[in-house]
Structures are given as structure tokens and as C-alpha cells.
Amino acid sequence: MIEFQENFLIQNEILCLRNSEIDELSIQTHLKRLKLFRKGPYKLNEIFVPSQWNSYIKWKYLEPILLSIFDIFAQKKDTFWILDIGSNNGYYSFLIYYFFKKYQQNPRMILIDPVEEFYHQFLFLSQFLPEEDRKNFEFHKIGWENIHNLNQKYDLILCMGIFYHQYNPIDLFKTIHSILKTKGYIILETITVQLESYPLFLIPEKKYSGAKGIWFIPNKMAVEVLLKRLNFQEVRFHSERFIFEEMKNLEYLPGLEQVIDKKDKHFTIEGYPVPYRSFFSAKK
Ligand SMILES: C[S@@+](CC[C@H](N)C(=O)[O-])C[C@H]1O[C@@H](n2cnc3c(N)ncnc32)[C@H](O)[C@@H]1O
User: Fold this and answer.
1) 204: Cβ below 6 Å to ligand 1?
2) Which terminus, N or C, of the chain has the lesser number of Cβ atoms within 10 Å?
3) Which H, E and C letters describe the chain, residue by residue?
């Protein structure tokens, strides 16, 4: 069990939130209206909420990065502004907020995601937070393309699971650079392919691993070169994992055997190198 604070903990890889003022009937009623959760799973009071992905696995990779780049023991009085791009229902925003709070920092979370259903899931989940924490969260139903409208600069920007869906990934990095405070950090997580030797992007002709909407899949070197060319400092590669690690709930997703070549597990059904997920960080 990992306890972040009372009524907010991870147990058996499930994010457990508790608010005694919300009754079971109200939870069930809300859950019927909300679509399947992609990020989770959660336990809300005594009710289990399943999800497509086991999101805890990504957190296991993310937490050591936060510990390695931030001096969390140096207490800061100033507000620590964090932006979560493509926050989905807020799973990682909740964890990151309580991670910094545990170390007596003063976090303020801004979540952006243009998808209506994720906004409603977030609103529902955030009711389980105490009022004093809830007021430190803001969710905007916008894409990163409109982030300048918020007129804010950030100490930390999370860009996880976004990069390969963009058809203008250079603009994405330029935008992030422009809204980071000096000495602020980006933490980037993206699909990568294990093609070494040169900085390269794989462009799938149609689908990749059975998925649509994937444009550019970099190798590790390509991410590093791009960040450096766009004036980020201290570019670091942190970790790489096989993408299907967190696909625990295969009842909701295509199984490995449906997207990996049966004859050679190094390739997808489309004939491309199999996907990995890699974490990077960089400083402005
Ligand atoms: C693959 S999910 C990643 C979710 C989460 N960040 C994670 O790492 O698990 C991509 C998310 O980005 C959101 N999204 C799509 N287009 C976006 C855009 N232009 N700006 C910000 N978020 C976007 C989607 O709605 C979705 O919630």
C-alpha cells in the first residue's frame, strides 16, 4: 500500500479515494452515466471502477523521475504550477498533486483535455478530494494548441501519451518551451521504436499496432535531438518498457496476439517494429 494522505492511497495497484459524504447510490448513479474509464482502476469508497489500462504501471516509472529531477526536500513557499497535457480523467494529475503535497510543496494542477467525457469523469472523481485540495485543480476542455489563452507559465509540464498523435509535433514542443518558466521541466512519455544508429521517425502508412491516428513514432535519438534543437537543456532519457505491460484488462483491448506478428514478435501486424514506451525529461 502507498499512502499519499488519508483517503488517498494506492492498494493492489488500485487508486483508492474515500469521501464519507458521498453515498453508494450516488456513486452508482454517476457511474452509469459516465463512459468506460480509460485510466484507472479506481476504488471510490467501497466501489471498484474498472479501467481499460492499468495506469499504476506508468506511475511506477514516473515517480522515480520526479524524485530524480526535483529537490523535493527544499521547501518552496511559492505556488508550484504543473500542467498535465492530455490529462484524461485526471489519474496522473491526482497522483502528482499528492506527490508534491506529501513533500510540503505548494502544487497547483492545471489539466487540459478537449474530450467532454474525460472532463465529466474528472468532475466526478474530484468530488472525492477534500475541498482544500479540489480548489487547487483546474480542468480546461482545450487542446494544447489553445494553451496560450490560459496565460500561465509552468514549473513542470507533463506530456504523456500525446506526441505520436500529433501531426505537428515540433509545434507541440515549441509551445511547451514557450509556456515553461525558466528552469522549468518537461516530462515526456511517448511511444518509441527500437531503431538505433540515427535519429529517425517512423511514419505508419495507415494503422500502427492496430491503432489509428498515429503519425510520427520516434526512436530515442530523435526525441533527444528534437528537444535539443528546440533549445531544451539537460535532455535525459529515463526508461523504456514494452508497451503492452500496462494492458492488463484485455477484455477491453485487442490482445497482444491481435497486434503482434504471429511469426516474429519483434514486428506489429502491419510489419513495423513493435512499440515501446519511453520517458524523457528536459529543462528550459
Ligand atoms: C493516450 S491518452 C494519454 C492520457 C494520459 N496523459 C496518459 O499518459 O495516460 C491521450 C489524451 O490526450 C487527449 N488529447 C487529444 N488531443 C489533445 C490535444 N490536442 N491537446 C491535449 N490533449 C489532447 C485525449 O483526449 C486523451 O485523453
Assistant:
1) no
2) N
3) CEEEECCEEEECCEEEECCCCCCHHHHHHHHHHCCCECCCCEEECCEEECECCCCHHHHHHHHHHHHHHCCCCCCCCCCEEEEEECCCCCHHHHHHHHHHHHCCCCEEEEEECCCHHHHHHHHHHHCCCCHHHHCCEEEECCCHHHHHHHCCCEEEEEEECCHHHCCCHHHHHHHHHHHEEEEEEEEEEEEEECCCCCCCEECCCCCECCECCCCCEECHHHHHHHHHHCCCEEEEEEEEEEHHHHCCCCCCCCCHHHHECCCCCCEECCCCECEEEEEEEEEC
pLDDT in tens, 247-278: 655 555 566 667 888 888 889 999 999 999 99
Domain 61-283 is found in CATH 1.10.150.750: no
In this structure, of 1-10, 61-70, 151-160, the range with the lowest mean pLDDT score is 1-10
Q: Is the pLDDT of residue 283 over 70?
A: yes
Task: For ligand 1, say whether the CB of 275 is within 6 Å of any of its atoms.
Answer: no
Q: Which ligand 1 atom sits closest to the C-alpha of 145?
A: 19
Distance 157 CA to ligand 1 centre (A): 13
Parse the chain into domains and list their residue ranges. 61-283
